[in-house]
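User: Can you write out an input/output pair for a complex, sequences first and structure second?

Assistant: Here is one pair. Inputs:
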Amino acid sequence: MVIKSKISPLTIQRLSTYLRGLKYFAQEEGKASVSSDDIALWLGGTAAQVRKDLSYFGSFGKKGRGYNVDELIKTLEDILGLDKSWKVALIGLGRLGRSMAVYKGFRNSSFEIVAIFDIDPQKVGTKYNETPVYHLDDLTRVCEEEGILISIVATPAEVANKVFQIALDAGIRGILNLSGRSSFNPPPHAFIKDVNMEAEIESLSFCLTHY
Amino acid sequence: MVIKSKISPLTIQRLSTYLRGLKYFAQEEGKASVSSDDIALWLGGTAAQVRKDLSYFGSFGKKGRGYNVDELIKTLEDILGLDKSWKVALIGLGRLGRSMAVYKGFRNSSFEIVAIFDIDPQKVGTKYNETPVYHLDDLTRVCEEEGILISIVATPAEVANKVFQIALDAGIRGILNLSGRSSFNPPPHAFIKDVNMEAEIESLSFCLTHY
């Protein structure tokens, strides 16, 4: 599938949510087809938005008959790159890192944490949740051997920029940044996705203050 | 400050990031004024975007002289509702909940987790990180007593919808949802912010597949 224009991060986020909704419709409700209204209801959005988001990727659904659930699941998985499996390196085995190592959302997903990295001699050489813990110095070697392209960075904020550079040098192209620091401009063809709980909760105080 | 139009979630997210950047400029670099270019560089965006985001909230900065850092910090804090402090209830004391209870990003922030809720008799009645752990049945009482309006939900996905309803009934108006489930339409004047690590990492596989 070739995508012509740049897709907004919010659209990509909604595609993930649609996919989750469709799987729910298929597995929990046994539905074979759904309308854009059904999908919009799942997300709390509008049917027009659903149709627009999907239109970037071609023409789906039949007028008056809605979308075939299984086909649309398959299409969304293709769009999101979930038709293959991704090996993931977790960097930083503090509390947040440990919660990611056992994160239920990754089970039965296309993402598998196959290696953990830290610099604490107490942790290096052990296993966590059956996953080996390596020294950060071994990142390049392990990423090459395992074919790892995605990393979750759960280190303290103070060392995040340094860790990003180490990860990019090791061939990592996608970083899920949980460190809270977000001032790093990745080179072309590398991507950093920031998840900052403080910023997320600030959007709530914004809404509670103004709406 | 009165806001006329609905502000997009991405703009709000960027305001949080600008605020973090400005604090860095003030505290680490001792800067008194910055240009929209400086701010854009921090975020990896454009100066035009910065000016547009700020324009929703009035007129800031002087042509050719940039923004006064301290004033803009104060303004952004007002916009984001951070000029007051928010008491937060953490619901769910599993691994993810525990990592939130000690999350460094909340230190020195406007958010304080003052009460934790769970249903596990082993946990109820104890303290975690010096914060009392209550039974979920006590949510309404404690939220009323403490004046809690914001909750972080870190329960398993299967019970999330039920917990959302309990939280809303207890007077909670803002929910940071870490459970991974996001199919709940909050009533008017209540807000749910979903943080789903699986969806976040899917945006990376999207980028690595298509860009």
